[in-house]
Amino acid sequence: MRSTLIFAAFLALASPTLSLVAGSGESEQQVMEAINGSVHTFESWSWVNCGLSDDGVKIESIQISPDPPKPGKDLTVTVKALVQREIKEGANANVIVKVGLINIIKKNYDICEEARKANATVQCPVLPDSYTISHTVALPKDIPPANFNVEVKGLTPDDTDMFCVKLTADFSKA
C-alpha cells in the first residue's frame, strides 16, 4: 500500500496538470482530521491519509522540495509508505483534481504502468515492506493562482480499496 500511495502521489504531482494540487477549506480539514487522524499542513500545501484502517498501503509521510512549490520550477516529491499487502499488476489510482467545486481532471491510472513509464525504483509486483520513493517533475510556469484539491484513491485489480490520500496546494500566493 505504501508504494502504491507513493506512485499515486507521483501521479498526482508528476503530470503538469495534476501538479496543481489545491487547497481546501479549514472546515473540510477539521472533518478529515476528526475522521482519519491528523492533517499534515505546511506553508502552502497539506495532505491527509483518507484511507481505511485495513488498507494495504499506509502513507507515512509526503515531503516536497522546494516548500512551498514554485510554478516553473522543479518539484521533488518524497513519499514514505508501508506496503502491507502485495501490489499486483492491474492496480490503479483514481485521481480527481478540483479548483473549488469544479473538477478539472478526473482520470484513472494504471499504477504499475505509470511506475514503468517513470522508471521508478520500485516496480510491480511490490512486496510488503517499507519504501521511500522520490520523484522530480517540472511544474508548469502557467499554474493559475488558485487553491487546488487532489484526491487519489488506489484500488487493487479486484477494486478493493488500497489507499487514499487528499492533497491541497495554494498557488494563489506563488
Automatic annotation (TrEMBL):
<dbReference type="InterPro" id="IPR033917">
    <property type="entry name" value="ML_PG-PI_TP"/>
</dbReference>
<dbReference type="GO" id="GO:0032934">
    <property type="term" value="F:sterol binding"/>
</dbReference>
<dbReference type="InterPro" id="IPR039670">
    <property type="entry name" value="NPC2-like"/>
</dbReference>
<feature type="signal peptide">
    <location>
        <begin position="1"/>
        <end position="19"/>
    </location>
</feature>
<comment type="subunit">
    <text>Monomer.</text>
</comment>
<dbReference type="GO" id="GO:0032366">
    <property type="term" value="P:intracellular sterol transport"/>
</dbReference>
<keyword id="KW-0445">Lipid transport</keyword>
<dbReference type="Pfam" id="PF02221">
    <property type="entry name" value="E1_DerP2_DerF2"/>
</dbReference>
<protein>
    <recommendedName>
        <fullName>Phosphatidylglycerol/phosphatidylinositol transfer protein</fullName>
    </recommendedName>
</protein>
<dbReference type="InterPro" id="IPR036846">
    <property type="entry name" value="GM2-AP_sf"/>
</dbReference>
<keyword id="KW-0732">Signal</keyword>
<comment type="function">
    <text>Catalyzes the intermembrane transfer of phosphatidylglycerol and phosphatidylinositol.</text>
</comment>
<comment type="similarity">
    <text>Belongs to the NPC2 family.</text>
</comment>
<dbReference type="InterPro" id="IPR014756">
    <property type="entry name" value="Ig_E-set"/>
</dbReference>
<dbReference type="InterPro" id="IPR003172">
    <property type="entry name" value="ML_dom"/>
</dbReference>
<feature type="domain" description="MD-2-related lipid-recognition">
    <location>
        <begin position="47"/>
        <end position="169"/>
    </location>
</feature>
<keyword id="KW-0813">Transport</keyword>
